[in-house]
Amino acid sequence: MKTILNVIWLVLSGFWLFLAYLAAGALLCITIIGIPFGIAAFRIGAYALWPFGRTTVERRDAGAPSCIGNVLWLVLAGWWLALAHVVTGVLLCITIIGIPFGIANFKLIPVSLLPLGREIVPTDQPFSSRW
């Protein structure tokens, strides 16, 4: 079932969101300071490309640097990517078939706003992150 949902997601919105994260990551990687943010954008882009069957968990070893990085991320790219999720989610919720995919878009908004200090794990092992 996860595969079917992921394929439909890929066609309806996943590919375009992946391209948005790819563009944001490429722009952020232009400077040396932006490389960690670009890597985070690429990581979330892969998650946005194929989200069903995976989830995000908070990393316990993430400290103050990830908090500061999240503030910078929010200003540099977070708002625009979250806005893309909101618009795509609303458009998908217009049809009955698209409602689960719209809800999945809304669930990606917190990750797009504050990605640092989070880890993407399979849904069958949500607590297998590093402690």
Automatic annotation (TrEMBL):
<dbReference type="GO" id="GO:0005886">
    <property type="term" value="C:plasma membrane"/>
</dbReference>
<feature type="transmembrane region" description="Helical">
    <location>
        <begin position="30"/>
        <end position="50"/>
    </location>
</feature>
<feature type="transmembrane region" description="Helical">
    <location>
        <begin position="62"/>
        <end position="81"/>
    </location>
</feature>
<dbReference type="InterPro" id="IPR005185">
    <property type="entry name" value="YccF"/>
</dbReference>
<feature type="domain" description="Inner membrane component">
    <location>
        <begin position="68"/>
        <end position="118"/>
    </location>
</feature>
<keyword id="KW-0812">Transmembrane</keyword>
<dbReference type="InterPro" id="IPR031308">
    <property type="entry name" value="UCP028777"/>
</dbReference>
<dbReference type="InterPro" id="IPR052937">
    <property type="entry name" value="Inner_membrane_protein"/>
</dbReference>
<dbReference type="Pfam" id="PF03733">
    <property type="entry name" value="YccF"/>
</dbReference>
<feature type="transmembrane region" description="Helical">
    <location>
        <begin position="7"/>
        <end position="24"/>
    </location>
</feature>
<feature type="domain" description="Inner membrane component">
    <location>
        <begin position="4"/>
        <end position="54"/>
    </location>
</feature>
<keyword id="KW-1133">Transmembrane helix</keyword>
<feature type="transmembrane region" description="Helical">
    <location>
        <begin position="87"/>
        <end position="108"/>
    </location>
</feature>
<protein>
    <submittedName>
        <fullName>YccF domain-containing protein</fullName>
    </submittedName>
</protein>
<keyword id="KW-0472">Membrane</keyword>
